[in-house]
Amino acid sequence: MLSREALEAYRRMTPDQRLVLTLQAMRESVPYLLSGSPEVVDRRFELIRRENDLRNRRMLERLAAAERRNDGT
Questions:
Q1: C-beta separation of 4 from 15 below 8 A
Q2: Is 33 within 8 Å of 44 (Cβ atoms)?
Q3: CA-CA distances (angstroms) from residue 49 to 12, 35, 53, 55?
Q4: CA distance 21 to 2
């Protein structure tokens, strides 16, 4: 969890400043993401896909539930 000061500094950033931080973090992490044997890299990407799919499914389920609640009012 970020400190209150770090969160406040992040909130004060402009969108382009946040994008620069995001791109920098991506540049720094890509070599680690691609390191290892092809099997290790494939497993790593499969795990990322599964986590993304689960997160997307949960968001869609919650959006559908919210829409059902709104339709009932």
A1: no
A2: yes
A3: 32, 18, 6, 10
A4: 15
Kindly state the tokens that stand for 42.
Answer: 């494939």
Query: What pLDDT digit, counting tens, does each position of 13-62 carry?
Result: 999 999 999 999 999 999 999 999 999 999 999 999 999 999 999 999 99
pLDDT (0 to 100) of residue 71 = 87
How far apart CA 30 and CA 15 sit, in angstroms, is 22
63 Cβ partners below 8 Å, 6+ apart? Answer: none
- What is the number of helices (H) and of strands (E) in the chain? 3, 0
Q: pTM for the complete prediction?
A: 0.66
